[in-house]
Amino acid sequence: MDLDAVRTFVAVADAGQFREAAFSLSVTQQAVSKRVAALERELAVRLFTRTARGAVLTVDGQVFLPHARDLLRAEERAAASVQPGRRALRVDVIGRRLAPADLLRDFHRARPEAALDVVTLFDAEAAIAAVRSGTVDASFRALTRPARHLPDGLSAARVHHEPLQLLTGPQHALAAAREVTPARLAGHRIWMPGNVAGTEWAVFYDDLAAAFGLTIEVTGPDFGTEPLLDTIADSPHLATLVGEGTRMVWPADHDLRRIPLHGPTPAYPHSLLWRADNPHPTLALLRAHLGTARSGGDLWTPKWAR
Asked: pLDDT tens digits for 199-211?
């Protein structure tokens, strides 16, 4: 149904005259007549009776009028829902227990009035496609390609370097260490079944392994965080790597150890990705809140993240 015709019908009903309706709509009287006639043809009823004093609603016109007003109110609500700042900013955080989720929570604490819609997409390619298409406003990702190689219209900025930690059970040879160098992990079994080939995090850990001579095992199905922690807790040989900002909860009797890595400190490079033409005001606030991450002297990141 043509909403301009519906709007014209309501204007005539309120004014009681085609000429006054035309003036209020800033169109010609002929345009008003054409719109009303088209609406009457579509509905297959007469909406007005013309009299010497103007336009009078027919019975059908009286019945249709409240529904016409509802249609116009629905149009207003629909348009308002997508006005910049009126809808929640939709942000992809990879995982709700990972560091980007904490970055977003920090932003919300600083800006509690900012409405957010948090989603989790699978990998960087899915995130890039979603940002490009406009189905999400922004995404936290490790971008293995330079920003200049992103699709036209997309922008990215490095916002956080997240230090890695070694996670071991109490029987592991390194369990008592206060900190460990990456080189010292050579020869130890690091188990990360969630490293799916082709993802940005798998690329990161492949480069980390190559840089420090590590062996990262991805054998076995990935049953999730809890089964991984159960296995690490009981093993004197297996350990895994986690980000400093990764939230994990385990039973007290697991006695797991999170050991910082230094000399240098491997850091996972989180970037924020967004469309350059996105006018959402909350996106601008988020970018300003996050700022730009700067590499410290003792941090290691892959070449593509420098």
From this structure: 999 999 999 999 9
